[in-house]
Amino acid sequence: MHLWRITSILLLYIIVTATAKRLITPKAHLSDRQSENERVVGGTNAEPGFASYQVSIQGMYNSHWCGGAIIDKHWILTAAHCIYGYNPPYLRIITGTVESDKPRAVYESDEYYTHCNYDNPVYSNDIGLIHLKDPIVFDQYTQAVPLASKPLEDNATAILTGWGDVQLGGPPAESLQKISLKYLSHKRCLEAFEEEDREILDIGHICTFTKEGEGSCHGDSGGPLISGDELVGIVNWGVPCAQGYPDAFASVYFYRDWIRRVMSGRCKACHCEASNYPTFGDKN
Ligand SMILES: *[C@@H]1O[C@H](CO)[C@@H](O)[C@H](O)[C@H]1NC(C)=O
User: Fold this and answer.
1) What CATH number does the domain containing 184 carry?
2) Are 173 and 144 in contact, with CB atoms under 8 Å apart?
3) Which residue range(s) make up the domain with 175?
4) Residue 42 in contact with residue 242, Cβ under 8 Å?
5) Catalytic center residues
6) FRET pair for 149, CA 20 to 30 Å: which of 16, 164, 225, 250?
7) What is the SS3 string spanning 134-202?
C-alpha cells in the first residue's frame, strides 16, 4: 500500500507513532507535465475572500499543517487525523487570509471531537470538529459555508483549496491555492485505484479526479472541497501527490447527521457510539 494521509511533517510524527505500519515512502515520481507555476498540485492562487470559509490549523510552532472549514461561528470541520491526539489548547485556527503566516484573526480551541470510528476500518471516518473558545467574527474574508444538502452527481465540478505542498516533496504553498476538480462516482473511483488501495475506499468517502498533475498534496488535509456553494468534502487521503490517482475526501453529506449531533451539544457521549455509522462492509 502506498497511500499517505495528506498531511505535513509535524502531524506525520503523531501519525507515524500511531500507525507506523501503514505508512510507506511515497513514490518519488513526479509528472513531467507539471509546469512551474502549477500549485495545490496544479492549481492557481486564490484571491483574498475567494474561499472565506478556509482556515489554516496550526500548532505550537505556528506553522500551517492542516486545512479546515468554518461551518459555524464556533465550529471548524476538518479531518480527524489533523487533530487526533493533539491537545486542544495548542491548536490555533487562522482565518480570513490567503497567506497562512499572515492571519486576519487567530482563534483558540477549547475542545475537539473526532469520529468514534476514526481509522476503523483503516483510513475511514476521518472527520473531526474543532470547537472554538470565542466566536468567529465574520466579514468579507471570513464566512461560514453551508453543509452539503444532497449527494453529488457524477462529474460535478468541485473546488479544492489548500496551502498544501505544490509538489511531492516540494515546499508548501505560500499563498492559498485553488483548483477545479471533478467528482468521480464511487464505482469509477474504485476502478481508478490500484487493487491494493481499493479496500481503503469506504462508503463515507467521495473522490475527485481530473488528470495527473492536478490534485491534493501534504498539508491540504482537512481542507474544504466545495460544490454548488456547499461544503461537500474534507481532504482525507490520496496517493501523493497528483500522480494520476483520485483524491479521497470525507463526504460531508454522509457525515451530516454526525456533524449536527456533535454541534447540537447533545452528543457528548453519542459521538462515540459506533453502531449508527455503517462501514463499507455494510453496503449491499
Ligand atoms: C462522467 O464522465 C465519464 C468520463 O468522461 C463518463 O464515462 C461518464 O459517462 C460521465 N457520467 C455522467 C453521468 O455524465
Assistant:
1) 2.40.10.10
2) no
3) 157-254
4) yes
5) 81, 126, 221
6) 164
7) CCCCCECCECCCCECCCCCCCCCEEEEEECCECCCCCCECCCCEEEEEEEECHHHHHHHCCHHHHCCCC
pLDDT digits (tens, 9 = 90+) for 113-171: 999 889 988 999 999 999 999 999 999 999 999 999 999 999 999 999 999 988 887 77
CA gap 76, 89 in Å, rounded: 15
Q: Specify if 133 maps to a domain.
A: no
What's the CA-to-centroid distance between 87 and ligand 1, angstroms?
A: 44
pTM of the predicted structure, to 2 decimals: 0.84
Q: How far is the CA of 277 from the centre of ligand 1 (A)?
A: 29
Q: Per the domain annotation, does 118 fall within a domain?
A: no
Index of the ligand 1 atom closest to the CA of residue 155: 1
Residue 202 placed within a domain: yes
The Å distance, Cα 261 to ligand 1 centre, comes to 35
User: What's the CA gap between 234 and 207, in Å, rounded?
Assistant: 10
Distance CA 192, CA 244 (A): 9
DSSP structural state of residue 49: T
- The number of distinct structural domains making up the chain is 1
> What tens digit of pLDDT does each residue of 98-125 get?
999 999 999 999 999 999 889 988 999 9
The residue contributing the CA closest to ligand 1 atom 11 is 154
Is 191 domain-assigned? yes
